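Quick one, tokens below. Sequence please?
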């Protein structure tokens, strides 16, 4: 069972990716429009989650590689599973000095009836990466495997599963799909929503919930470095390389289920075309940099670049796909 399948995913050099997707694209800065002041770089959640990690990582690489004449100032705007930030950005049409990190909640939250704004109210800039879904527990948790947790949920469906997105959004749908694939009643999942993955992990470490549905990238440091958390599996076709190679896939544990989390960047509606072109070129150059490739690998991300036009088409496809998923789970409100 696959909830999301990326259009193109390659753990390769971004230069090959750029050659495939952007024929004739230059990797040097092109003349024309450039930002004249700092970029407001919005992460629509508290620090520590997937949006925040993407915004801060890309901002850091862009500055380290000296790719922009202006800084990218990451600003956290939490609330409503992203809806608070989207409402603010939607009122700022034409602003070519504002960008925000995005992922499936931009599709899911409006479909679940919790935001009046969806992807059509913004300008796609670029899809950048995909991140594998995972389920996290404390290092001292009694659940040693994914099936230990699933068996416990069969005995007690009210066990709390946290996530850094709104009900009916990314991490809820990810875990509900896993439950469905494992033969559980997905509608009975006791999902506890937090204002970002960092807040959900803090609650898990405090013993307030049993597990967290998350992306592997946002939690890789606490798994591989601090050892505070354990991942019970990843919703990928194959194991990840490097320090996370010991984590088995769901399929290896008998659950035929994959779920990829795409992440990208968008701006306000009606952003001028020359600004969109500038940012597209900027992210291509970033993905070709050594700094990006090191950060990407450390976070277990996979390059999945789409330009503005391709990203817009992809978002339309996602709306149809996730609409069917939410309807099946009884969560579709739109």
């Amino acid at each position: 069972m696959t909830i999301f399948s990326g259009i193109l995913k390659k753990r390769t050099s971004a230069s090959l990716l750029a050659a495939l997707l952007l024929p004739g694209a230059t990797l040097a800065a092109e003349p024309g429009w450039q930002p004249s002041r700092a970029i407001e770089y919005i992460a629509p959640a508290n620090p520590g989650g997937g949006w925040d990690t993407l915004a801060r990582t890309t901002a850091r690489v862009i500055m380290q590689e000296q790719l922009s004449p202006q800084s990218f100032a990451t600003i956290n705007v939490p609330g409503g599973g992203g809806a608070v930030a989207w409402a603010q950005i939607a009122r700022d049409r034409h602003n070519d000095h504002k960008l925000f990190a995005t992922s499936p909640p931009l599709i899911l939250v409006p479909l679940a009836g919790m935001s009046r704004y969806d992807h059509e109210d913004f300008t796609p800039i670029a899809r950048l990466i995909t991140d594998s879904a995972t389920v996290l527990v404390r290092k001292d948790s009694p659940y040693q495997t994914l099936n230990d947790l699933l068996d416990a949920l069969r005995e007690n469906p009210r066990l709390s599963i946290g996530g850094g997105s709104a009900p009916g959004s990314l991490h809820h749908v990810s875990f509900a799909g896993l439950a469905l694939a494992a033969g559980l009643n997905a509608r009975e999942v006791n999902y506890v929503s937090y204002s970002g993955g960092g807040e959900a992990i803090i609650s898990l470490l405090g013993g307030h919930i049993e597990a967290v549905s998350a992306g592997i990238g946002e939690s890789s440091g606490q798994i591989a470095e601090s050892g505070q958390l354990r991942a019970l599996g990843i919703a990928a076709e194959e194991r990840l390389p490097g320090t996370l190679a010991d984590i088995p896939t769901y399929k290896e544990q008998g659950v035929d289920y994959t779920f990829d989390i795409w992440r990208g960047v968008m701006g306000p509606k009606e952003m001028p075309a020359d600004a969109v072109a500038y940012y597209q070129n900027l992210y291509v150059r970033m993905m070709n940099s050594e700094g990006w490739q090191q950060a990407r690998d450390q976070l277990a991300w996979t390059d999945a670049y789409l330009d503005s036009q391709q990203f817009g088409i992809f978002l339309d496809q996602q709306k149809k796909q996730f609409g069917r998923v939410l309807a099946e789970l009884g969560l579709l409100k739109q």
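The two ends are 25 Å apart (CA to CA). The first helix runs from residue 14 to 21.
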